[in-house]
Amino acid sequence: xxxxxxxxxxxxxxxxxxxxxxxxxxxxxxxxxxxxxxxxxxxxxxxxxxxxxxxxxxxxxxxxxxxxxxxxxxxxxxxxxxxxxxxxxxxxxxxxxxxxxxxxxxxxxxxxxxxxxxxxxxxxxxxxxxxxxxxxxxxxxxxxxxxxxxxxxxxxxxxxxxxxxxxxxxxxxxxxxxxxxxx
Length: 183
Description:
Blueprint: H1 2-11, H2 26-98, H3 102-159, H4 162-182
Helix pairs in contact: 2-3
């Protein structure tokens, strides 16, 4: 390995400057580069991610509050319906004496429709909450992926120019040729 480094220094690619120089060992530099990129992503991405999650949390809480308001409205409708039911029950008792059973059927239909409406409202509330949670998760995932990709591409584009790229390729070709000669 020392022969390769000495041959590159003798060809004029890199000059020896004390303890400073380019590390051409890609296996040793990749973990360092990856740790730097991940550190930068975590440092700059945590604030954005936190803001996104806070915004989504507020939207979900707002949706839950709206659902609770709908639920309270349904409870009020239920109370009104119960009041109507009590009124209908009084009338039914009066008509039952006279032999009218049709009002009894109307009462049961009214109760069934109210419970059906309440069930539908509860189901709608639960579906809305699940949908908003899933949408929030998907948006956060998409933003994090986009930011990571943009950061990685920015890092690569800022660090890799044509001259450095050509030098790296030449160095790798030289190492492969040296390995072939050793074999």
